[in-house]
Amino acid sequence: MTRLSLEDVSVAYGRHRVIHGVSIPPVEDGQLLGLLGPNASGKSTLLRALSREHPSSGRITVDGRAIHEFSHADWYRSVAAMPQVPPALSALRPVELVWSTARTLGLGLSDRALGARIDGLFQSLGLDAVAMAPLATLSGGKRQLVGFALAMIRDPDLMLLDEPTSALDLYWRLSLMDIVRDRLSTRGGVGVIAVHDLDIAARYCDCLALIHEGRLIATGTSAEVLTSAHLSVVYGVETDIRTGPDGRPEVRVLRTNRSPQ
Ligand SMILES: Nc1ncnc2c1ncn2[C@@H]1O[C@H](COP(=O)(O)OP(=O)(O)OP(=O)(O)O)[C@@H](O)[C@H]1O
Ligand SMILES: [Mg+2]
């Protein structure tokens, strides 16, 4: 069982505070939290705080334990952080990158078991054909999928995914999100995803947190967070929002309502 909670979390780069006292109701086992907000609102920064990559104040707990209380090895073996930027262009091959990451993490798997896990991941992500191709020769979307495989190789309890579908085509956007959802419902754990796509957010997330200039504007279900008033204030767009057949909001963006800042 995994449970994530954030209370009064603030994050700064040097003296410049970027996240201001964000509290989000606990995310329960099997749930996916979506972080929404405009460019530079602080989504990646909050994810960096959650992954321990960047220090924060306030209290972030996993199963009631403050995140810095976990040993380095336990933390990195059970927490998958997928950064916004995919793996760097290099001569390394995806399969080598994933193998070496898994070895460094010390997952305690035999070569055979690890090989099977990598094969399964690559197959489910359509990466078989490029597994042995240098990363520098891969398309942007394929590199993003390799970044996801790299994060998922540890079979994580906590998935922290920063815009994991931003470079993906329609099929892979949904397929990657289906994999995330399936894992949460069959294996458990908690996921947090930063995302700009409101359709993905409404369709896949159990709860949303809308951030604007480092402050929490709204949190709750997609129907509570995705309102025309919120989207107008935060994104500067006029929207038409209807309730879809599954009860979730469907957002149609009509036009911008302010000049760019
Ligand atoms: N390493 C850093 N050093 C200093 N400031 C930073 C650093 N990283 C981000 N920032 C600043 O923190 C603020 C939040 O940035 P962040 O990357 O968290 O936004 P975001 O919501 O993820 O945006 P986007 O949707 O564009 O990815 C921005 O003002 C950004 O310039
Ligand atoms: Mg970001």
What's the structural blueprint in terms of helices and strands?
Layout: E1 4-13, E2 16-27, E3 32-36, H1 43-50, E4 57-62, E5 65-66, H2 72-78, E6 79-82, H3 94-105, H4 111-124, H5 140-152, E7 158-162, H6 170-186, E8 190-194, H7 198-204, E9 207-212, E10 215-220, H8 222-225, H9 228-235, E11 237-243, E12 249-256
Parallel strand pairs: 3-8, 3-9, 6-7, 7-8
Antiparallel strand pairs: 1-2, 1-4, 4-5, 9-10, 11-12
Bound molecules: adenosine-5'-triphosphate (ATP) and magnesium ion.
Adenosine-5'-triphosphate (ATP) is lined by residues 13, 18, 37, 39-45, 84.
Give structural notes:
There is one protein chain. By secondary structure, the chain is α/β, with parallel strands linked by helices. It has a single domain (4-256), classed as Rossmann fold, CATH 3.40.50.300. Helices cover 34% and strands 29% of the residues. The protein is built from 9 helices and 12 strands. The protein has a 6-stranded mixed β-sheet, with helices on both faces. Strands 2-1-4-5 form a 4-stranded antiparallel β-sheet, covered by helices on one side. Strands 11-12 form a two-stranded antiparallel ribbon. Strand 4 (57-62) and strand 5 (65-66) form a beta hairpin. The longest helix is centred in the C-terminal third of the chain and has 17 residues, at 170-186. The structure holds adenosine-5'-triphosphate and magnesium ion.
